[in-house]
Amino acid sequence: MFGDHPHEECGVFGIYAPGEDVARLTFFGLYALQHRGQESAGIAVSDGKKVNAHKQMGLVSQAFDEQSLEPLKGHIGIGHTRYSTTGSSLIANAQPYTMESYLGPLALAHNGNLTNATDLRTMVLKRGVGLTSTSDSEVATMVLLGGEGPNWGDRIDHFMNCAEGAYCLTILTKDALYAVRDPLGLRPLCLGKLGDSGWVVASESCALSTIGADWVRDIEPGEAIMIDGDGPHTIARHPAPRSALCLFEYIYFARPDSMLQNQLIHSVRMELGRELARESSVNADVVMGVPDSAIPAAIGYAQESRLPYTEGLIKNRYIGRTFIQPDDRIRKQGVKLKFNPLTSTLAGKRVILVDDSIVRGNTSGPIVRLLREAGAAEVHVRVSSPPIRHPCFMGVDMATYPELIAHRMDVPEIQDYIQADSLAYLSYEGLLRATGRDPNSFCGACFTGKYPIPNFNPKARDEIKLVFEES
Ligand code: AMP
Question: What is the CA 219 to chain-centroid distance, rounded?
């Protein structure tokens, strides 16, 4: 049985800024990270004596208003936006987790999936500690609380010794902010500076820009930092032989205006498009991208192939990502709810349609159909990532083999299924080339099946089920 772990595609944020309205800044930071999770949002703030928190289901704009921000007074804050799969869509899984502990109050926000969550759950439960949710973030909180050592630094160190897989944490205590990134650096986390004495950490640098903070650096893989009145200091290092930043962050997940490893995501995506054009050119009249995530790759493709780039689909931006819809039927309908074709730019044209990825295969077919109905003479689909053949257990919502179309079908079959005139994917080598970085510094497990976690067997995953659920 494949896992029923909630998949923590999330955004985390943290701020230490005396004299600032940290709750409001966190609110805006979370707004910038909304694309990383639309299911629930939460903020916890400390004034040096006590911690106040508010979390709610829904978008950041739905979870917060003046009334809910008002009590969140203090100079340290953390925030979280969460997306998860069906079944675990509960307020019990919303973050930050807040706990009273022997060392004082603690609030924790987590992005990523722990690959040894089942073992850690057992360890925590054996100690007699109860759990209220299926979330491995709650387990992470309990491992931290039950850790050894007289201070939070020691407990974070202990947690890093126990945990495997993907975790970016922002942790708030009464008087400090902590930021922790797993040794493989699977998910992104960066540090920024706000004014003279403020510090910010966020999943993506777009959240820093939004609140007027300057990007300083990425938190290193395996690094834990503490931020207090003396600024940030590294308190733990757990280096791994290699890092393994998720390639899907480059392809789809991160916002194009974010910097990852000193590179602007938008530039990398344009390069993915150029590589794709070099690898699989085809005679056509226009190039267009599936809005919004494939636009930079489509521009790169058009530049490289010297074909005109055009808009062919208008997206209704108020309908969320189609994959956010919980079941397949609504997901399929979602494509039509979301896009309208621009008939005048498509009529009689041989179109190259660039998309960033095909995951379950529900989107491409209806879009190809839409373009044909709008008069396109030919539709050639080009995908700016390789086929996704293996599930992700490190935090992206593609967690089982059967749901992945490229696991069930080869490329000609998929071309047939989506009724494209031709279909080509970017090669894995092309993807790595486009990043311009050390090929051994990434996780590409969803493409290659090579998981960066030692002794990890994706087929031996346990299912976590709560025996009771509250609604
Ligand atoms: P589909 O092939 O129907 O699953 O839709 C794939 C499209 O949804 C991609 O082009 C992406 O833009 C977007 N997407 C990105 N991540 C995911 C994900 N984890 N699950 C499903 N769709 C995703």
Answer: 16
Q: Is 372 in the pocket of ligand 1 (CB under 6 A)?
A: no
Question: What b-and-e string marks burial along 377-389, b requiring 16 or more CB atoms within 10 Å of the CB?
Answer: ebbbbbbbbbbbb
Amino acid identity of 454? P
Which ranges of 8-74 would DSSP assign to H, the alpha helix? 22-32, 60-63, 66-69
Average pLDDT over residues 55-78: 96
C-beta of residue 379 within 8 angstroms of C-beta of residue 368:
yes
What pLDDT sits at residue 319? 72
Q: Report whether 92 contacts 6 (CB < 8 A).
A: no
38-44: average pLDDT: 94
pLDDT band at 462 (very low <50, low <70, confident <90, very high): low
pLDDT for 467? 59
Atom index in ligand 1 nearest the CA of residue 396 equals 19
- How close is the Cα of 287 to the center of ligand 1, in Å? 20
The chain-wide mean pLDDT, for the chain, equals 91
Distance CA 333, CA 64 (A): 30
| CATH number of the domain where residue 431 is located | 3.40.50.2020
Decide which of 180 and 93 is more confident: 180
Question: Is 162 designated active site?
Answer: no
State whether 219 and 300 are in the same domain: no
Ligand 1 atom nearest to 405, measured from its CA? 2
Q: How many domains does the chain have?
A: 2
Whole-model pTM over 0.90: yes
What count of residues does the chain have? 471
Nearest to 202 by CA among 86, 29, 367, 83: 29
pLDDT at 9: 80
Within a domain: 252: no
**Helices in 174-315 by DSSP H: which ranges?**
206-210, 247-248, 265-279, 295-305
Strands 51-57 and 190-194: unpaired
Cβ of 225 below 6 Å from ligand 1:
no
Q: Is the model's pLDDT at 379 over the cut of 90?
A: yes
Measured by CA distance, the residue closest to atom 10 of ligand 1 is: 357
Q: Which residue has the tokens 């979301």?
A: 338
Q: How many CB atoms are located within 10 Å of the residue 171 CB? A: 29
Domain closes at, from 180, 210, 244: 244
* Ligand 1 centroid, distance to 437 Cα (angstroms): 25
Residues 154 and 272 in one domain: no
Does the pLDDT at position 326 exceed 60? Answer: no
Peptide bond into 188 cis (omega under 30): no
Q: Give the residue among 175, 228, 201 at the shortest CA–CA distance from 80.
A: 201
What is the band of 84 on the pLDDT scale with cuts at 50, 70, 90?
Answer: low
